[in-house]
Design brief:
four-stranded antiparallel β-sheet; about 280 residues; six-stranded mixed β-sheet
Length: about 280
């Protein structure tokens, strides 16, 4: 499953082992504030897994010179997305009690510092609004793999359904009354598949087609993903969580998360219905 340029995906699949000094995207040294926002309210935390999601302009954590070098010469918007997701990853590491360290890159996927695994995501800004970034980081002794994705549900229009969804998924979407839940369900379906790719590809080195995965979204904030492709060590059925920003902040933005424990079961953090921004 590849990211799609028409939906604003970047060239790097931000998913799933030397530290320098963190820097802001403009190259100035970042100050670590004792009053940095707690993940609750705009993220989720637990003993083994921490999730942050925030507007890119609200991310105050810096990045490391080694990370900045990975996107040297890239467009400014790409550098901001790249820096914001890694800044949130550093915050998540610290929340887990792990010293922040550079998240480098192995081919098209992030390479996580020893002791943690994780996934990154971002949604480009639109209509004059800032974009969003997300990071999920888990302790490697408890979490085997993570996938996270952010999507604008309104961009997953009917013209893309045949490309993104299998026949069963298309029938389910077509049977829904046109409106918010149909739009949101399509967005969750695509976002969940992107999150699934970010989870399984670094663990297996395999590829799967969009049509191999069937996503069933529920209005309680959960979704089920069933995959017909054989992926070593990956269950054919996974349970995930989705959520979106608090009302009025970004109505059709959706975040999807999948996490696999070391014993091969789905991790289901207690997501709130929405996240807000300080």
């Amino acid at each position: 499953m590849n990211g799609m340029e028409c939906l604003g995906k970047s060239g790097e699949h931000d998913s799933t082992g030397g530290a320098g000094t963190p820097y802001e995207p403009n190259g100035t040294r970042a100050a670590r504030s004792e009053s940095s926002p707690h993940p609750c309210g705009h993220g989720v935390s637990g003993r083994a897994l921490v999730v942050f999601c925030r507007r890119i302009g609200e991310v105050r954590s810096g990045w490391f010179p080694e990370e900045a070098a990975l996107v040297e010469g890239a467009a400014e918007c790409r550098r901001r997305e790249f820096a914001a997701a890694r800044g949130l990853a550093h915050e998540a590491m610290e929340k887990l009690g792990v010293a922040a360290a550079p998240v480098l890159r192995s081919e098209r996927a992030p390479r996580w510092p020893e002791g943690v695994t994780g996934a990154l995501g971002h949604a480009s800004g639109r209509k004059g609004q800032d974009g969003w970034a997300a990071a999920a980081v888990g302790r490697a002794d408890a979490v085997r793999g993570i996938g996270i994705d952010l999507e604008w549900a309104g961009r997953v229009g009917e013209r893309l359904w045949s490309r993104l969804f299998n026949e069963a998924e298309r029938r389910a979407l077509e049977a829904m009354p046109e409106g918010e839940w149909q739009t949101l369900s399509a967005g969750i379906g695509f976002s969940a598949k992107e999150a699934f790719y970010k989870l399984f590809q670094p663990l297996t080195g395999r590829w799967a087609d969009f049509h191999d995965a069937t996503v069933t979204a529920r209005q309680d904030g959960g979704f089920t993903l069933e995959c017909a492709a054989e992926l070593p060590g990956i269950p054919s059925r996974l349970e995930g969580r989705w959520m979106r920003p608090a009302p009025g902040e970004a109505p059709d933005l959706v975040l999807c998360l999948l996490a696999l424990s070391v014993d091969g079961t789905s991790l289901l953090p207690d997501f709130p219905a929405s996240f807000s921004v300080p």
